């Protein structure tokens, strides 16, 4: 399945998973989570996801390295500060938090499967190929970074 490595832009994968969440919620409309906490948690997840994505993107720009997930070989450096000090993939984590916000807003436990689908797809077809490219380009310093910081959290 290497044919899918770095082929679909992660924001598009996130959008497709959002549609999946919406469809899953529609499959079981009677099966809902209600509670006063649901919408504030959705708002917090939305804010955290957006903040994480913007923060990570700004660090890439500041380091003058490519933020393009489709071309990890063009990276000029490995960003290790800010959110990159606690997750190697803050932009993908941000998208997962945005999906969590949608699932909370929908109130459908079934829609949570869309987050699992996003994490599985991005890990296999985006993160693992990125890691191979970055290991080949940056060698031991990147390996050290991988030992210090987790892939997701």
Automatic annotation (TrEMBL):
<dbReference type="GO" id="GO:0032259">
    <property type="term" value="P:methylation"/>
</dbReference>
<dbReference type="Pfam" id="PF04191">
    <property type="entry name" value="PEMT"/>
</dbReference>
<feature type="transmembrane region" description="Helical">
    <location>
        <begin position="42"/>
        <end position="60"/>
    </location>
</feature>
<keyword id="KW-0489">Methyltransferase</keyword>
<keyword id="KW-0472">Membrane</keyword>
<keyword id="KW-1133">Transmembrane helix</keyword>
<dbReference type="InterPro" id="IPR007318">
    <property type="entry name" value="Phopholipid_MeTrfase"/>
</dbReference>
<dbReference type="GO" id="GO:0012505">
    <property type="term" value="C:endomembrane system"/>
</dbReference>
<protein>
    <submittedName>
        <fullName>Protein-S-isoprenylcysteine methyltransferase</fullName>
    </submittedName>
</protein>
<keyword id="KW-0808">Transferase</keyword>
<keyword id="KW-0812">Transmembrane</keyword>
<dbReference type="GO" id="GO:0008168">
    <property type="term" value="F:methyltransferase activity"/>
</dbReference>
<feature type="transmembrane region" description="Helical">
    <location>
        <begin position="95"/>
        <end position="122"/>
    </location>
</feature>
């Amino acid at each position: 399945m290497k044919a899918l490595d770095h082929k679909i832009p992660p924001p598009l994968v996130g959008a497709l998973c959002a549609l999946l969440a919406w469809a899953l919620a529609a499959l079981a409309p009677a099966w809902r989570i209600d509670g006063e906490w649901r919408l504030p948690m959705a708002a917090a997840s939305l804010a955290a996801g957006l903040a994480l994505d913007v923060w990570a993107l700004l660090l890439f720009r500041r380091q003058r390295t490519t933020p393009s997930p489709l071309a990890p070989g063009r990276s000029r450096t490995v960003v290790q500060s800010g959110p990159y000090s606690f997750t190697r993939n803050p932009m993908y984590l941000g998208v997962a938090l945005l999906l969590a916000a949608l699932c909370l807003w929908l109130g459908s436990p079934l829609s949570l499967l869309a987050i699992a689908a996003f994490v599985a797809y991005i890990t296999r077809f985006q993160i693992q190929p990125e890691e191979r490219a970055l290991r080949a380009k940056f060698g031991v310093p990147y390996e050290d970074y991988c030992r210090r910081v987790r892939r997701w959290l």
